[in-house]
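Title: Comparing notes on inverse folding

I've been comparing how different people in this forum approach sequence design from structure. To keep things fair, I'm posting one structure and asking everyone to reply with a full sequence. Here's the target:
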């Protein structure tokens, strides 16, 4: 427990930035009109593609014995991939609504 408290005290500024960015992200996404959803989804897919590549690079450079970093990197790759695929599926379904029916 003491190790965790020391880590938190050492990285408190980073924790503040993460918490504030979560609140900012929720506030920004909550105010997006539905008309802009599809273009923003495409942008989010591009960003998550960068996250996936970054996670793969980090996993390649981490020491083989650092299991926590490997697990977090693997989760980042899996969740980023799910988000990209889900985003493309949702975008495709939304664009289908604008096509003329035969």
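Reply #1:
Here's my take.
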């Amino acid at each position: 427990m003491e190790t965790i408290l020391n880590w938190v005290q050492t990285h408190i500024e980073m924790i503040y930035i993460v918490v504030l960015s979560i609140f900012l992200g929720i506030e920004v996404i909550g105010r997006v009109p539905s008309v802009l959803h599809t273009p923003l989804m495409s942008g989010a897919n591009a960003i998550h593609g960068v996250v996936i590549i970054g996670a793969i690079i980090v996993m390649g450079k981490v020491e083989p014995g650092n299991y926590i970093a490997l697990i977090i990197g693997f989760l980042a790759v899996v969740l980023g991939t799910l988000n990209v695929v889900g985003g493309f599926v949702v975008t495709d379904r939304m664009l289908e609504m604008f096509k003329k029916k035969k």
